[in-house]
Amino acid sequence: MALGQLLAGSGMFAAFCAFALVSSITPGPNNTMVLASGVNFGFARTVPHLLGISIGFSLMVALVGLGLGSVFTALPWTWHVLRAVAAVYLVWLAWKLATSGGVQDRDVARPMTFLRAAAFQWVNPKAWVMAVGACSTYVLHGNVWLNVLLMAGVFAVINLPSVAMWAVFGSALRRWLASPRVLRAFNVTMALLLLASLWPILAGHHA
């Protein structure tokens, strides 16, 4: 009996880790923005952005696991408010990215700060889907508090290197995008991808 419970628990943990990895490393608003940040500012200046994503999202997972996600069920109108705020903010970010200057403006422009990146998770539709999906599907421990800590901890460990890979890739592309015209085209492309992430909001999908 104990062995069966152990095997079941390890299987659940492995499945959750796989979910955390796939959901963290696949394209979304966070990864699109850190890729663009890596190109425009380099990896070192993108580190606060990366830490803000990882810590901010882990906090979100903890709060959703403690019952915040049930607010959408009890008060459906809150989901519509979130969708509206997220849509407006993502459009604004896409506009800022598309109209950002070229190489000559890099010393003036600033990458996203730790606090802004952490706060962005609360209007990031993919982050909400990940957090609510994880907390409603996986149970890593029978104790609610330990379960929340485990989930938040696993996401913190897996999410940071996952999003960092996108920043590293963007930083590696910097020398290939040295031309202001090419950089502008890249930023416009990233802005369009950011707008494409609005589809789940406009389609009305939610976890």
Automatic annotation (TrEMBL):
UniProt KW Membrane keyword: yes
One GO location term (cellular component): plasma membrane
One of the Pfam families matching this protein, by short name: LysE
BP-aspect Gene Ontology terms: cysteine export across plasma membrane
Topology of this chain in the membrane: Multi-pass membrane protein
Main location: membrane
GO MF, any single term: amino acid transmembrane transporter activity
Signal peptide: 1-20
Keywords: Cell membrane, Membrane, Signal, Transmembrane, Transmembrane helix
Transmembrane segments: 48-69, 81-98, 148-170, 182-202
Compartments (UniProt record): Cell membrane
Protein name, UniProt field: Threonine/homoserine/homoserine lactone efflux protein
